[in-house]
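During the reporting period the student researcher (J.K.) took over the structure-prediction task from the postdoctoral fellow and processed the backlog of single-chain submissions. One of the processed entries is reproduced below for the supervisory committee.
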Amino acid sequence: MIAAGVNRFITPRLFVWAEAGRAFSYLSNNPASGAGQADYRGGASYLRGWGSVANNGESGWFTEAGGDAVYVSRYDHNLLVYGQTRRGYTLPALKGGLYLQPLWNFNWTADARREWWGNFAETGPGVRVRSDNFPPNVSLRLDVLRGVYLVNRDNPHRPNYWDFRAGLWYAITR
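J.K. obtained the following structure tokens:
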């Protein structure tokens, strides 16, 4: 998607955003989708953390909880709500300023239209990696999740799934 957007912190933990752009499919060979499809999105995000985080140099237990509500025009003007909770341990710094956080994920998603792809719960292990050699506020996350679809009407897949996720996270904060 190519988009322009606006973001606004309401409080240090609550963030609202909106973006408008065009979505392009790299899988479709339909000539009609060549110019892309209009895509409008917006939502609110809340994130809260407790305990030892990798950026402060101390080891110990941590918990993170977040919730989001997202409007997506491209999917039949749907509204998705989801929650993510992580519980883990920040290990002591390794040689060379490397920080590891093994963690356990608990996630759920629900949508207003009760689509099979928009209603699921998942859980599984993960690890967050942070290094003094990374730019500030950058981390790498690897997760292996086992999920279950909560709505199976018209679901072309099995009711359970495995998902491997890798993400490079970057945040600009004040």
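The committee noted the following: The chain has a mean pLDDT of 87.
J.K. will present the remaining backlog at the next meeting.
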